[in-house]
């Protein structure tokens, strides 16, 4: 059927809700890449087999990722009228017992992580009530998820659907108020009003540069062009994170909705999602989501009978880190080298194929439906004054619990590590941390009280970036870390400009000399000069920040470097 | 027209002109390496960097690519800029220590030696991109491009095979600031070689792209003057008679008509593809051919057809 008016959307919402909160038992398996890597695919097949064999009336459904990476594979059981039970670290040997437990009503107590009695939608369009009536005794001992530190301290706004809905069923997205923001924008708001709302939210680009999204949309809106484009940057080049991948695999429709609203706001009718080459499952799920949206007339000609048309395509990137830079991305989309281009002119004026283009990070676009539904003013009240909203943070490294979370900006880094990551693995002490990926500085443990926002981190010589938080323990060799990230930049430099190409090559060589015990004070002063020139004269942010790893190590851990130098007169 | 300031000097220029062009038009020196006014500015060498102050913010940009707008303040010689430029030259010198133009540049910046801690290489290409841009944008042969990424970036023919689309025009050789792109023009050698060996044709080798092409010989003087594919390409693109492509640049001259010999037969006019010959009526039966040099392409078709050799 095609959605021609809001009441059609309501019909599908009911269908979707019947799937999520069904009279039949619903068994969900987290099959995002992280789960699959730990065997979730086999568990999914095994569950289907056991359900059939044991003649249990249950639907086995694939869902995305809820951020509990350390507990994958995750299997959830929702029996009608009972709380939603989350099992973690499920192994294939336990599948038969799990299915049996659905028949008997017993629980696999050693695998239970939490229960959910009800689920409130952050857009205030109602809630899902899992537990009907009094809570059965068997479940009383299980912590309700809202009381768990892991969930209590998050603010799951854009990630609310991930892990709950099937990314393969558009009805389930619609059940969670999906596409109602689009309906509101197209039927009740002018494009100018949409831009105004986004500007009022004060949301900043989630890719790293932190440019105010409203200003970018306004510039594109006002630009002259017979054609305009929206490009979603899903290239996610930072080596230690997988949030874009998670989103695309868990809740692709939230991105689609954000992109269409962006198109409406600026006057674009064509959009592209540029996805990292490694993310095959993500691309598959996004492509199938696009098709489902097209079938319902939520994409294509005359969306929801509004007169606005928009088409969307997935484009596969080659996997280069530099293609996260917006002008390099646009060059790559055009079939040219992934090399940055000088600005001005900015993409908002002259972007893809020379036309006005809005390039937004995937996470930025995921926030748009919420801003439209609840208003920019509401959004600007979250986070800090200058860094509004939430941010997805992926914790990795020597952390006890690898995970990703959604927190309001302004939260202390120490709290993020302690509450969600449960501190350092194996009881060791934290030595250093890095935010924002390779371009962020490697900061010492004494700076852990820094707040996660654009300003504070920038002042400390780091950056918020795309939300990676890498944690290093007391056994970490800082020179090795500096070398790792410098090598990363050397591999990823596009090679266009002298400063970056030659500069990072020399930094690598100097680092090697120091590691091999041939370093002198001369090496250090040369390194500082090269770093300053790279920061000043490189053509793009990659070159400008390629020296940050080694410079931050020199600044914060000087003894580890000075101790390796050849002493004068030795 | 907009008003900007460069080093404190107030200047008026067309909006959108590059800072570099405006500076040069006003006698302000900014060094460049990869810039060429025949090519679209690329911004690779980073030598032409300047400080741009706009809306209270300062940034460092390449002056060759930055378009001026009202109220821009530019500084071309601050300490940050000079130190940045010096490092760029040091890095290039470390990459290409044997290239004469790099050593000369280093001297201008007071760089006596490559810092001993730097890795010294022996490359000769500075990846300025001028050969690539000339081939792709101006000549439009598209025979060469950048290949590889980062430190492994080079300029090359596709798949490092002899460049199929190269017309041996030599633009890449001409434009190269370091001389790493080389050509070899080899003349005709007569068969003083042993029996059975074929005489070599006059040819041009563009060594870097593993290409060689025959050089066409001038119909008048016999000297080889241009590569065959180059001439063919220009012929396809320009509306010029085919005879034009058989005369070398030295021999190409405007026709001079000997009025004593001229019969007024009109044969040259019929044969002139550009309509550059007309009768100059001197009255009566005495018609003589006259050349209108503004239309003439010196193709020598008239010279070749004149029955009495009145044209030279």
Taking Cα atoms only, what radius of gyration of chain B do you get, to the nearest Å?
Answer: 27 Å
Most extensive protein-chain contact, per-chain counts: A-B, 36 and 37 residues
Strand-residue proportion of chain A:
5-15%
Number of domains of chain B: 3
Q: Give me the count of strands of chain B.
A: 13
Mean pLDDT of chain B: 91
Shape of chain B: extended
Query: How would you name the CATH homologous superfamily of the largest domain in chain A?
Result: NADH-ubiquinone oxidoreductase 51kDa subunit
Give the % helix of chain A: 40-55%
| Annotation field: number of helices of chain A | 24
Domain module count of chain A? 4
CATH class of the largest domain in chain A: Alpha Beta
SSE order of chain B, one letter for each helix or strand: EEHEEEHHHEEHEEEEHHEEH
Structural class, from secondary structure content of chain A? alpha/beta
The radius of gyration of chain A is 25 Å
Written description of the protein model:
The complex is a heterodimer of chains A (570) and B (312). Chain A folds into 4 domains: 16-152, Glutaredoxin (3-Layer(aba) Sandwich), CATH 3.40.30.10; 179-380, Rossmann fold; 390-472, Ubiquitin-like (UB roll); 478-562, NADH-ubiquinone oxidoreductase 51kDa subunit, iron-sulphur binding domain (de novo design (two linked rop proteins), Up-down Bundle). In chain A, helix 13 (280-295) links the parallel strand 9 and strand 10 (311-316). The model of chain A has no long low-confidence stretch (mean pLDDT 94). Chain A is an alpha/beta fold. Helix content of chain A is 41%, strand content 15%. In chain A, the strands form 4 sheets. Chain A has a 5-stranded mixed beta sheet, covered by helices on one side. Chain A has a 5-stranded mixed beta sheet with strand order 13-12-16-14-15. In chain B, the strands form 4 sheets. Chain B has a 5-stranded mixed beta sheet, with helices on both faces. A 4-stranded antiparallel beta sheet of chain B has the order 8-9-10-11. In chain B, strands 6-7 form a two-stranded antiparallel ribbon. Chain B has 3 domains: 2-77, Ubiquitin-like (UB roll), CATH 3.10.20; 129-187 and 197-248, no CATH class; 253-312, 2-Layer Sandwich (Alpha-Beta Plaits), CATH 3.30.70.20. In chain B, a hairpin with a 6-residue loop joins strand 10 and strand 11 (224-227). The radius of gyration of chain B is 27 Å and the shape is extended. The chains are: A alpha/beta (570), B alpha+beta (312).
